[in-house]
Each structure stands twice: as C-alpha cells, then as structure tokens.
Write a structure and sequence with these properties.
Keywords: CBS domain. By secondary structure, the protein is an alpha+beta fold. The protein contains four helices and six strands. It has a single domain, classed as CBS-domain (Roll), CATH 3.10.580.10. The strands form two sheets. A three-stranded antiparallel beta sheet has the order 1-6-5, with no helix packed on it. The protein has a three-stranded mixed beta sheet with strand order 2-3-4.
Amino acid sequence: MTPGQLQDRSVGALPLRGTVADVMDAAGPQVWYDMTVEVALSVMAAARAEHLVVCDEDARCVGLVTQARLTAVRDSSRYTDRLRLGDITDDSEPFVSPSATREEAEDAVPFGRLGLVPVVDEHGSALGVLALSR
C-alpha cells in the first residue's frame, strides 16, 4: 500500500473483515526521542503536522506526541529547555499491528482512550497511525 492510498477513517469505520492497514493514515514526521520539546514543536510547525512519531536510536517507535501535549508540557511548571521527547513519551503506549482487525485494535487500547495510535510492524517500525473515535 502506498501512502497515496491511505484513507482517513476511524476504527469505527473499519470494514468488518478489513484490517488496520486498510484504513491507517501515514505515520507523518518521525523524530528521535532525544530531541528537545522546543525543537519538536519547531519541526511540527515546519511540517504542518498535528503529531510526531517518536523513535529510539534503533528507529523503533516508542510513542507519539501531539501538538497539544507538547504545548501543555512547554507551558507547565516542570518544563526546562533540556526536557526531551523521551522524557514525556511512555513506551507502554498501545501499539497496533497493521494486520489487526477492528476488534483487535479496539481491544489493544485502554477503554475510553481516543486519539491516535501508532501502527507498527513486527520490528517496531512505525508504518502509520490509526485515529480512534469511539
């Protein structure tokens, strides 16, 4: 599947027999987990992106940050100019396989969590993101 074939739909719109790969969005910009919050906000602005996929030194996805989260962190009292993305991402975030069904994708995410979920391959590389709205 090429990025041009990706469609913008939520998990609720997944076909009954389809997979996450059929409806995921492109992963978008990928950045390293040692990037500072301020630089990440600049990258996000330059790319006109609403999120960044955060990767470790082996290019494995460790999480995803949104503009809203980065802005909230920057505006918080615990913010310093040394704060890095690895300090604010939680590598225990749910990740979804591109071959997962709608039910499997919904079960992988804690109840009530909405938003974007990284779609990763068996090596942990980000392939895309899935928008959850349930």
